[in-house]
TrEMBL record:
Protein name (Swiss-Prot/TrEMBL): Laccase
Cofactor annotation comment: Binds 4 Cu cations per monomer.
Residues of the Plastocyanin-like domain: 43-156, 169-319, 438-557
Chief site of localization: secreted
Keyword entries, A-Z: Apoplast, Copper, Glycoprotein, Lignin degradation, Metal-binding, Oxidoreductase, Repeat, Secreted, Signal
Pfam family, one: Cu-oxidase_3
Signal peptide as annotated in the record: 1-22
Entry similarity comment: Belongs to the multicopper oxidase family.
Amino acid sequence: MANSVAFVFVFVYLPLSSYFQAFHAMAHEWPAGGSTRFYDFKVQTMRVTKLCNTKEIVTVNKMFPGPVVYVQEDDRIIVNVTNETPYNATIHWHGVRQKLSCWFDGPSYITQCPIQAGQSFTYEFTMVKQKGTFFWHAHVSWLRATVYGAIVVYPKTGVPYPFKQPYEEHIVILGEYWLRDVLQLEQQVLASGGPAPPADAFTINGHPGPNYNCSRNDVYRIDVVPGKTYLLRLINAGLNMENFFAIANHKLTVVEADAEYTKPFTTDRVMLGPGQTMNVLVTADQTIGKYSMAMGPYMSAQNISFQRISAIAYFQYLGAVPNSVSLPAKLPNFNDNLAVKTVMDGLRSLNPVDVPKKIDANLFVTVGLNVNKCRSKTPQKNCRGMNNGTFAASMNNISFIKPTISILEAYYKKIGGQFTVDFPGAPLQFYDFANGAPNNAPNNTQAINGTRTKVLKFGSRVQLIFQDTSTVTTENHPIHLHGYSFYVVGYGTGNFNPQTANFNLIDPPYMNTIGVPVGGWAAIRFVADNPGVWFMHCHLDIHQSWGLGAVLIVENGKGELETLPHPPADLPRC
Ligand code: C2O
């Protein structure tokens, strides 16, 4: 059939009612999924003024946040990305499983070379059996700081939500904003060997809100009708912080996490790490007024400086006095680990799920920070980490170093020298990870560098245990896996102990980013049925820059439907 061309450029800051109605007006003409949707993304710089400061930021189509991609389950998405900036760019479609389309996944030097200045690349993939709230973001350096936007995938026509149809839907993207150039900032932080400075502001849909300087009118607002129920599509696109989110006097009912339905779970607040999305229902059942929606820090690590001012948006009832002060939202303390656990405990798949019971590949992977010895002749400049060392991060004590061409290309074309296949299935040394990790920095806290991958047979049933370590500090790490969703079958504090660990094999949540508890562990399971090269990394960009990642290579199976197709002709060159 003829492909329908849908340029649905809708701004998150428009009143959503108008575009939601527009969507419904169109929806009945659409076939039940399986359409093709085209988008044009121009990566462009734009001058913006925030916090009394004007600077140039990188955007898509001069929008911040960027354009929303609206599609339906099983639709094909074609996005032509043209890079009109002087910087390298790629776009990753976070949470999209990219079944047999690994070439279009987007992480730089993993599945593709960056799109260089003036070049373009067309991403083409299908939302196979996926629906819900996703997002896209740049996947090179720290460009994600301003290059991000939502992907909303509606169910097929005629398929209702498994909850009462909300009156309206709104996208709420949490972000972090820097006054400095983020690409330079990454370079400077890495060159210094020291920690990353905090963001200058948290933002909700790009707006810091009234708690920040010069931002009284730089605030996002949802106008609500008393008595109606709203669906908020929460997305954490932030760079280096995990965040709590709450609305004054209103309960949130979680109905979806990482684009998979959950059993409804009602709570006063939620926590999202970067890379996580969550749909919540909110009913405007309070007295007419103006209420704060607040985004604040969740910081589980020790001795790290971070932004403490909450970003505020308004949840404003029709009929409220416009200039009235808003009722403040109650956020947990920044280090409230119990609040985080409570949210995790509440996440259950809506229906019973098919969790692999037998395991073919059982991996144990430590995640954490390191301090390497100073190798610079100017330590005052370059060794500003703990005890005059340089900070690093690792999985199984190996810091991931990016190759010079993409691993997928090297793997596919059998080009040697880019990566090795010896990522260990367990740490080289066992010790009391949670409480007794080596901490005599930089003497026993070094990591090994490498571009190591783990090769998995097609169809193998995989269990991965992530274990946080206490070198430098324990910390909650949002670990993201490309190419898959996984069942979060268990988690806990302390060291993982197979004898005492309690697994939920009935209705665990099906996620793509798991916050490994601070000083604890998380267990995930999935079937490796999507061939390709898949990045697995901490979604805190500073940790990723320091090497907290590894790559899983899933081999082809038999036949066309289990084999990765050829690369596209316009695949960028390095
Ligand atoms: Cu959302 Cu590898 O990223």
